[in-house]
Amino acid sequence: CTNASAITVTLPNSLGEGFTCELVQGGAGQVTLSAAGGATLNNRQSHTKIVGQHGAVRLVVTGNSGGVAAVYNLAGDTGV
């Protein structure tokens, strides 16, 4: 994600269990992760943002009941 302005990445409720990706904040604009309706975003510190430029996070879908309730685990360079 490379932008001078803030970016919001909406996490869909439909990704399958086991889906994994890494996001890197390449620009100055802070990246915020937001769960779409039906999805859940978990982080041990309740963080939803990448901490700053060149920070990286990993997202893993740990479950998805019925294919419409993806549960994400967020780890890495997170902040508020």
Brief overview, please?
By secondary structure, the protein is mostly beta strands. Helices cover 0% and strands 48% of the residues.
Task: Please give the structural blueprint.
Elements: E1 7-11, E2 20-24, E3 31-35, E4 40-42, E5 49-50, E6 56-64, E7 70-76, E8 78-79
Parallel strand pairs: 1-3, 4-7
Antiparallel strand pairs: 2-6, 5-8, 6-7
Structure overview:
The chain is mainly β and 80 residues long. Helices cover 0% and strands 48% of the residues. The chain has no helices and eight strands. The protein has strands at residues 7-11, 20-24, 31-35, 40-42, 49-50, 56-64, 70-76, 78-79. A four-stranded mixed β-sheet has the order 2-6-7-4, with no helix packed on it.
What descriptors fit this protein?
80 residues, mainly beta, 4-stranded mixed β-sheet, two-stranded parallel sheet, 8 strands, 48% strand
Quickly give the structural class. Answer: mainly beta
* Count of individual beta strands: 8
- Which overall shape is indicated by the principal axes computed on the Cα atoms? elongated
Q: For the residues shown, what is the average pLDDT?
A: 98
Strand content: over 45%
Largest sheet: 4 strands, mixed
Rg calc = 12 Å
Q: What level of helicity do the residues show?
A: under 10%
Poorly predicted parts: none
Spatial order of strands in the largest sheet? 2-6-7-4
Q: What's the number of helices?
A: 0
